[in-house]
Amino acid sequence: MKKTIGIFLIMLLPAGSFGGAQSAARRVLIEVKDTAGKPIDKVTITATNKERGDFKKAYATNKKGQSAFLLPLEVKVVDFLLEKEGYQNHHETVALQAVQASKEDMFYTIPFVLYRVQEFTPDQQRRAREADDIALGFFNRGIELFTAVRFAEAVSQFEGAVEARPDFLEAWENLAASHFRAEQYEKAIAAARKAEAINPQSVQMIKLISVAYSKLGDESKAVEYQEKLKGFPDTELSAEELYNMGVVEANKGNDAEAARYLEKAVLAKPDFALGHYHLGLCYFRLNNLPGAKTELEKYLSLESEGENAKTAQAILASIKD
């Protein structure tokens, strides 16, 4: 008898009473994919609502890149934060009504696309294009001013270019050159270092830094950057640069190495008096007396009254003796 009554009572319950808790909630299905359309699992999804400061839920996607959950009916707008290592965090505010399957159905499907850290989102691409246009405008005006020998004005344009696009190598290089030509050597060094950080193979910037330090009277730093040039054996160096490298080696007692640089210096610039003088000294210390005689005589023919003339004459006299 009790069994019969139980069945009768169940039949009297209103339709839909089972799952009544679910009918009083919104059913949400999140789908997360990458830019290739592949599902992403283990994405942490945090849902919050500004109107309800106490509302905060956390979910995770399964192997299909999906996560299904319930939300209270009073929550109509949700702030979603999606996080996964290797991907950019994605924040989006969703009005649930806009993704509702139908007015009668409390079911909502919300798709998301996550971009990897090295990828550009559409918004990032748009902003990058805008930054490129702005940077290029500044850069072109800077080149015009630099060509017109208006270096101080060119500086402001190149500064605008690197502000718009901090990785704009050519703008950093020209900013360094503009500061250098305006005799702002410390600022030239700072800009050249930025360029060197972007492109460590930027020989021109290494040269500029070396010369700028020399202009500031910091010969130790100038020598340090001259030394870096040795790492670029195929780089075309000026006679002055070869001379400086030769003098550095000579000061370290490496006369054979110094002679090689100085030989190239005087070959590139035959009337380079100091080049001939120091090459003559190297030859003398290496006991290459004929070579020393030739180079020192060449020096005296170019600078008979030069500051090193007496030394050159004394060495020549000792060779003849």
Descriptive overview:
This protein has 321 residues and is an alpha+beta fold. The protein folds into three domains: 25-113, Sandwich (Immunoglobulin-like), CATH 2.60.40.1120; 120-220, Tetratricopeptide repeat domain (Serine Threonine Protein Phosphatase 5, Tetratricopeptide repeat); 236-321, Serine Threonine Protein Phosphatase 5, Tetratricopeptide repeat (Alpha Horseshoe). 53% of the residues lie in helices and 14% in strands. It is built from 13 helices and seven strands. The protein has helices at residues 2-12, 20-23, 122-147, 151-164, 169-181, 185-198, 203-215, 219-228, 239-251, 255-268, 273-285, 289-302, 309-320; strands spanning 25-33, 44-48, 56-60, 66-72, 77-83, 90-95, 107-113. Helix 3 (122-147) packs antiparallel against helix 4, helix 9 (239-251) packs antiparallel against helix 10 (255-268) and helix 10 runs antiparallel to helix 11 (273-285). The protein starts with a helix and ends with a helix. Mean pLDDT is 87; it is low at 1-22.
Features:
Serine Threonine Protein Phosphatase 5, Tetratricopeptide repeat, 3 domains, three-stranded mixed β-sheet, 13 helices, alpha+beta, elongated, 7 strands, 321 residues, Immunoglobulin-like, disordered N terminus
Count of individual beta strands: 7
The number of domains is 3
CATH third-level topology of the largest domain:
Serine Threonine Protein Phosphatase 5, Tetratricopeptide repeat
* Mean pLDDT rating: 87
CATH superfamily of the largest domain: Tetratricopeptide repeat domain
CATH 2nd-level architecture of the largest domain: Alpha Horseshoe
- The tally of helices reads 13
Q: Judging from the principal axes of the Cα atoms, what is the shape?
A: elongated
- The share of residues in extended strands comes to 5-15%
Give the class from helix and strand content and strand pairing: alpha+beta
Major beta sheet, strand line-up: 3-2-5-6
Largest sheet properties: 4 strands, antiparallel
